[in-house]
Write a structure and sequence with these properties.
Layout (H helix, E strand, L loop, with lengths): L2 H22 L6 E8 L2 E2 L3 E5 L4 E7 L5 E5 L3 E6 L4 E6 L5 E6 L11 E7 L1
Parallel strand pairs: 1-4, 3-9
Antiparallel strand pairs: 1-2, 4-7, 5-6, 5-8, 8-9
This protein binds copper (II) ion (CU).
Copper (II) ion binds next to loops.
């Protein structure tokens, strides 16, 4: 393939990408958050999000036992096995503070609890 052809291809690809982005761009860029579950704590105690902004929360179980995730009133309980990653997608619809926990029995009292702060 000649250099000219390669450049032409790259230009075409760039054009396609730009066109695709322009058409399908969501109203709000999702907020990407990473939360690490360890034995037996979360790596952070608070998460911050904004009303109506979609959240993509990557939950990584770095521990050696089962952990779970739940945000009161926002995300239903879901178990994540050791070494596994789970993507939780949600969009907060109201301002406030919402407790997030590991829903495995005994884990919340042991400290696997935090606060999601939703700002206007
Ligand atoms: Cu846990």
């Amino acid at each position: 393939m000649s250099i000219k052809r390669i450049i032409l291809c790259l230009l075409c690809l760039t054009g396609l990408l730009l066109a695709a982005c322009g058409k399908d761009a969501p109203a709000q860029t999702p907020l990407e958050i990473k939360l690490l579950a360890q034995d037996i704590k979360f790596d952070v105690k608070t998460l911050t999000a904004k009303v109506d902004q979609p959240v993509k929360l990557t939950y990584i179980n770095q521990g050696s036992i089962d952990h779970a995730f739940k945000i009161e009133g926002i995300v239903d309980e879901s178990k994540v096995k050791p070494g596994q990653t789970h993507l939780f997608e949600f969009t907060p619809t109201k301002v406030g503070q919402f407790k997030f926990v590991c829903a495995m029995p005994g884990h919340e009292p042991a400290g696997m609890v935090g606060l999601l702060i939703v700002e206007p």
